[in-house]
Design goal:
The protein is of the alpha/beta class. α6 packs antiparallel against α8. A 5-stranded parallel beta sheet has the order 3-2-1-4-5, with helices on both faces. It has 9 helices and 7 strands; from the N terminus they run βαβαββαβββαααααα. The C terminus is likely disordered. α1 links the parallel β1 and β2.
């Protein structure tokens, strides 16, 4: 294995997309969803890319790529329809030690963009190391049937309980036992069957077993309102 899987936090970080066509548009949209600051370099652009520039959502430099476009940039995506341009972008990025993805050209990439399934806080990424993005997408789509929308709300609930447990259960073994218990098969089955009342009761019972010495039920835990809202 020659790759190191990571999940980058790009909020307020400068990213460069070279190419303003349909492929570049898709990449820009994804970066904007992540909160990135996006710079685009392209002599021409789609109407959507132009609109993003007019509204101030992106910086658009309407010309060919130049090395100075990399100043302050964390991530680069080369998304033009010209191999030579993408190759030049990749070469300059390597010289400047900036990570780059050249769309559909694995040999020019220092990182690959996986097929992604998002369910709230849950992110599942599937990569084939650039060998077959379509296979990665197929696997991602099959996983979407197994991990439905409820997993997003479930993670909000678990995150709230985890914050409470870290604050209130000092014993490490008891704390870890509780956190492991609430993500077991029984809990997941209750989620899949949408038996939310039973789920809430079970979490409270489990907390009483692993929490303080006095068997008192806890009050509402952060995250419950999100999960149990009808």
């Amino acid at each position: 294995m020659d790759t190191y899987p990571v999940a980058l936090k790009l909020n307020n970080r400068l990213c460069l997309v070279v190419g303003g066509g349909k492929v570049g548009e898709r990449k820009i949209a994804t970066l904007l969803e992540c909160g990135a600051v996006v710079r685009v370099v392209s002599p021409e652009s789609t109407s959507q890319v132009a609109e993003w520039a007019r509204s101030g959502q992106i910086e658009l430099r309407q010309r060919c790529f130049q090395e100075e476009d990399l100043d302050g940039v964390l991530v680069v995506i080369a998304a033009t329809d010209c191999y030579e341009v993408n190759q030049d972008v990749s070469r300059v990025c390597d010289e400047r030690q900036v990570i780059v993805n050249a769309v559909d050209i694995p040999d020019l990439c220092s990182f690959y963009v996986p097929a992604v399934l998002r369910r709230g806080l849950l992110t599942i990424a599937v990569s084939t190391g650039g060998a077959s993005p379509k296979l990665a997408a197929k696997i991602r789509d099959s996983l979407s049937e197994q991990f439905g929308p409820d997993y997003g709300r479930y993670l909000e609930l678990i995150a709230g309980w985890r914050r409470r447990v870290l604050a209130e259960i000092a014993d490490t073994d008891r704390r870890e036992a509780f956190l492991k218990h609430i993500v077991d098969d029984v809990t997941l089955e209750l989620i899949q069957k949408e038996q939310y009342d039973l789920l809430k009761e079970r979490l409270e019972d489990v907390y009483c077993g692993y929490g303080s010495q006095s068997p008192q039920r806890p009050g509402s835990c952060p995250g419950e309102d999100v999960f149990f809202r009808k």
